[in-house]
Amino acid sequence: MELKKASPSAPAIKWALIGLVTSIIITYAIQFSNLDPNSAVKYIGLIPFFGFLLLAQKEYREQLGGFMTFGEGFLSGFLYSIFTGILSAIFLYLYYAVLSPEMVEKTVASAQAQMEAKGMSQEQIDTAMNITRKYFAVIGAVSAVFGSAIMGVIGALIGAAIFKKERSPFDTPGYNDPEPLDSPV
Q: What is the b/e burial string over 149-175, where b = at least 16 CB atoms within 10 angstroms of the residue's CB?
């Protein structure tokens, strides 16, 4: 009997889409709550990111019949993080460039206040703010892809270690228990 090999992409894409919807909800909740986007509240999005990564790996293991090697688990988690990064990059670009450009100004104002508190000259601050305003959406999108990939590697390694369950030789499909040589009397 041949084992049907499941694709790690299917659960990764499914959970990345669910993660995108969750990310959109969290983003707008932060915006409408009028919270500072540069505060520690921005890290709340990591909880569903890692949770959905683990769920993608768990679902892939179930598709494989309850057994998964460390490499298969890592691949599933890493694919999830790449898909999530790409989807998040698209959303962030649209969010900052089209949907909520006022959030760019809010973030830039907060960053400017931090630079002034550090004692930077007004010329340095103006230069940094002009570049930031011009490329904010692009920088956000690119950092989403790379940040998701880096965090995904860490999460995928941890998840793969958790969900790894190697198949023993006796669990192999088509394996029949040996028949006794002598029949019982």
A: bebbeebbebbbeebbbeeeeeeeeee
Instruction: Identify the H or E element spanning 45.
Output: none
Helix axes 102-117, 122-163, angle to 10 degrees: 110
DSSP state for residue 33 in the 8-state scheme = T
pTM beyond 0.70: yes
Q: Are 74 and 152 in contact (CB under 8 A)?
A: no
- What's the chain's length in residues? 185
* Residue percentage of the chain with pLDDT more than 90: 42
Neighbour-count burial of 178, counting CB atoms closer than 10 A to its CB (0-12 exposed, 13-18 middle, 19+ buried): exposed
* Residue 107: Cβ within 10 Å count: 18
Indicate the average pLDDT of the chain.
85
CB atoms within 10 A of CB 115: 16
41 or 24, greater pLDDT: 24
Structure tokens of 65?
A: 């019949």
| Structure confidence at residue 180 (pLDDT) | 57
